Amino acid sequence: MGEAVDDFESHVKTPHLLKRLALAVAGGAVFGAALPATAHADGNGLCGGTDSWVSVCATDPGSPASNGSEARHKPAPKGSKGGKPKVRSCTVSRLNPQPPAGSAVWKGHKPGDGAIYTRSCIFDASTAASTLGVPLPLQTFWSATPPAATGPDPAQLAQQAVDKMQLKGPDIVSPSATGRWAVGVPVWMHVGKSATTYGPNSATASAGAVTVTATAKVSKIKWAMGDGSTVTCTGAGTPYQKAYGKRTSPDCGHTYAQTSATESGKEFKVNATSTWTVKWTGGGQSGELTEVRESQVEVSVGELQALG
Q: Which of the residues 110, 212, 263, 274 could staple to 282 if both were Cys, CB 3.0 to 4.6 A apart?
């Protein structure tokens, strides 16, 4: 980047600014600006991107990632006293100066085609204080039209919409626990399709004048077959028919090379993990989340018996 960016980056790293940032957090709110400095995602959505213009904001500890990183989100158990989480109140401002053309934050758009905005969210003193010592990224996003200056956090509403969907693990049809499976005979894996086990599944969540719509669909299923091998399928798989004989599945299959006789219970534990891709839009912003769900079945694999 240019000299101005380098100078700015050197200033934001000074103890003076860090002290001011800590005081702002402890005081109960974080109103930052996008800082031209390089950062990397830490797996919790705290930092995003490797571009010179990164998102820098305070994020609610324990909240799901809002930058498209993989999330294994677990809703509060039934009967818990936590209740519905309060939607964060946020302030939106136009980034000034705007990032240069070609910056990753434009997401393929050009300067003048909409603009880049930053969103900072308010936390109470106890929550904010617990973020001290944690990277504080601010949500940075592109919008075709100016978003409202204040309002709820669309990314948090997107996660609430996902919670309404009640997404589940794969509905394993094959292999089944009651099926007859043998060494050397191809297994055709496939799952049932429903809104909660495969998608598409859509839901909305609202707060104030902002409504976010999210749509989820399984993008891949990773099968751990129990014998140490794994198979990743990008579809639901093809149902087997007797007319196929010993042909292998065209899109999602496995052939066992050993029996399950030495396994616990004399069965292989087959684990199917689905990756849900969730796309959402609302509040002048759009994004993508990833949810992961699992299912398991135990299958017995034996030897073919020769007749004679």
A: 212
CA–CA gap between residue 69 and residue 289 (Å, rounded): 6
Which H or E run contains 142? Answer: strand 139-143
Would the pTM of this model clear 0.85, i.e. be above it?
A: no
Chain centroid to Cα 286, Å, comes to 14
Cβ neighbours around 126 below 10 Å, total: 8
At 109-133, the pLDDT tens digits run 888 889 998 888 765 444 444 444 3
Distance, CA of 26 to CA of 46 (rounded, Å): 18
For residues 138 and 173, state if they share a domain: no
| Distance between CA atoms of residues 155 and 280, nearest Å | 8
Of the candidates 55, 87, 52, the residue with the CA atom closest to the CA atom of residue 68: 55
Measured in degrees and rounded to the nearest 5, phi and psi for residue 286 equal: -140, 160
36 and 126 assigned to the same domain: yes
**Residue 308 domain-assigned?**
no
Structural domain that includes position 98? 3-62+85-152
Question: At which of 130, 152, 174 does a domain end?
Answer: 152
